[in-house]
Amino acid sequence: MTCDRFAQEGLSVYPVTPERAAHLASCADCQALADRFQRLERLIAKAHGDAQPPPGWEARLEAVVTRGQRRSKSSRAAWVGAGVLAAAALGVFVLRAGPEGEPKSSVTALVELPTGMRAASAAVGGKYRIETRAWKEARVWLNGKTLVGRCPGGPACEGSGPSLRLNVPLAVAGEYRVMVLKAGEGEPLDEPATLDEDVRLVRQRHGQYEVLEPLSVY
Amino acid sequence: MNEASNKQPGVVALWAKQWGLDVYRYCRKLLTSDSEAEDAMQVVFLQAVQDFEQFRDPGSELHWLLSIARHRCLDRLKMLRRRPPSAEEEEGMDVPSDGRGADGALEDSEVAREVAKCLDELPAHTRTAIVLRYHEQLSYESIEALTGTKAGALRVRVLRGLVQLKECLEERGVSW
Predict the structure, then answer these.
(1) What pTM did the predictor assign?
(2) For residue A160, pLDDT beyond 70
(3) CATH number at residue B176
(4) What is the mean pLDDT of residues B157-176?
């Protein structure tokens, strides 16, 4: 019995038979090979033992858990479970909702991908779905400079009235940011050139707004 | 007993702080990308919130979380198996080895990192079987119950995987 064959026949995954034990005891090469496999098994147990999640994971996890708890507290635990499973099945992941205790800022931003879930990033080709009932307008900025979606009014807008729904195609890589707002008094905020200007104009007229955490698209 | 053992749904948030990293690392062994593992981690804690009433064994919180993680990661693998690897995953598979000492030998932790990279290159079903066998120390019969694959087939899978790992490490010039 050669050592190679010994390895192929199950050095480590099959119980050691008397025949194999006898061979192992008399074959230094096989013993060395057995030792190496045992070391490999120990190394497998250690693999990824120092892996670190992408930066910001703690905040994202906290947000997800807080949101889950909020739903649980309002007797909608069953909905959460179904939602989680449905999200997993559909490859949809809830990225961010509004801050706790401020129902007026409730915004749901979902990334829909053909390939699966992403926590804070997505691939080109996915869809970014934004839904809110509490704000008058929603805008999606690419890299803070290009308005790629708005509701009401834009081609990606699917809702009207009290419920705003956008379905923005993630056509190019970059950083997508959602801004929701109630503009306040004054002229309509029609064509701001940048996200910063958008924010500045809303502030200027004492409007309310919220800018969601960025979605990175690769 | 730690502070997370109070019977309040809010304690899951404390568990997340305390054991989020453990759950992530467990998921990362089974899933080949950081983002997949993070997604799975989030799903695990969401399920913990949802199923909190079913948790009845204070002191075994991590064990409970990891058992949720195992099922969710296996679900995730089934889903991922239906699609080709993403660009991110492919990039992750090709990281050159590093951490070599002055004498050419690698520290144990560095070798474990190389093993991790080689594990990521294995087919998902092989990696799953190896991780469940050697990380969790599950019997082949237990793995059969979890995955639905016969114990005999799992042994063959693990054996082939070990040989592939050995070859991968040799290709990377890692002595172990």
Answers:
(1) 0.52
(2) no
(3) 1.10.10.10
(4) 88
